[in-house]
Amino acid sequence: MAALKPLIAGNWKMFGRQADLSEIPVLAERVGEAAKSIDVLICPPAPMLAIAAWRAKDTPLLIGAQDCSAAALDSPRTGDVSAAMLADAGARYVIVGHSERRTIFGETDALVRAKAEAALTAGLTPIVCVGETQGERTAGRVEEVICRQVGESIPQTRGPLVIAYEPVWCIGGAATPTPSQITQVHSFIRETLAGRGGDTRILYGGSVNPGNAGEIFGAPGVDGALVGRASLKADDFSAIILAHPAAS
Ligand code: 13P
User: Fold this and answer.
1) Could you report the per-residue pLDDT of 30-89, keeping only the tens digit for each?
2) Does residue 229 have its Cβ closer than 6 Å to ligand 1?
């Protein structure tokens, strides 16, 4: 299979203010050349999306959202934000099923799938997150959990799709799996997708930083990364992007 264009995405989670969007032009300046061969995406909190998209205009950087409503049509849903509204604000991608949403907000595979479907309807590319907890890994249940999450969370409608493998035990701490553990899960996800477009990119996420990015990008089957903390500042995020072999 031909190599897929890498995607390196920053998930700002519930951090930042409008003033922090000044990181966008700085990042564009640093990674402009690399962004021709790597899709570089920033997913700020929803209230900053339109301004982020405006700041990214005329740069190769892409803007995405962190969640969307499962309802595709405009409807009376106080507090919800539809995928169509995100697209209207300038988003091209939307993260769905992040483990923080699955855990804190009790999102089920079925809900994540509905959100991914709504994203496709609005012309957005869903980034569907999957990953096991420490307990599930210790119990030898990684494949069972990943198989269920992939099988039941990804959209049934064919369309552009990204999957992010984010082991829950690696998010927000310091631990990362070994490159061979990452490759093992990515290959398993690829097998689980069998028959579905080989153009689905599989990202790794969980404590990616400038120090470990090169090793992670070197692991076979890794098509990019979903970065949390280290995506907030152009200094660290640009160092991660420039560590990708496709950047040079
Ligand atoms: P950290 O990179 O801060 O560990 O977060 C990973 C993550 O959850 C990205 O979606």
Assistant:
1) 999 999 999 999 999 999 999 999 999 999 999 999 999 999 999 999 999 999 999 999
2) yes
Burial class (CB in 10 A: 0-12, 13-18, 19+), 105: exposed
d(CA 115, CA 83): 8
Distance (Å, whole) CA 101 – CA 125: 18
Which residues touch 39 (CB under 8 Å, ≥6 apart)? 5, 6, 7, 8, 62, 224
Ligand 1 in reach of 42 Cβ (< 6 A): no
The answer to whether 143 is a known catalytic residue is no
**What global pTM score does this model have?**
0.98
String of DSSP letters for 190-204: HHHTTTS-TT-EEEE
Contact 240, 210 (CB under 8 A): yes
Closest CA to 49 of 88, 77, 99, 96: 88
* 100, 132, 166, 244: the active-site residue: 166
Centre of ligand 1 from the C-alpha of residue 226, in Å = 7
Model pLDDT for residues 3-22, shown as the tens digit of each residue: 899 999 999 999 999 999 99
Closest ligand 1 atom number to CA of residue 207: 4
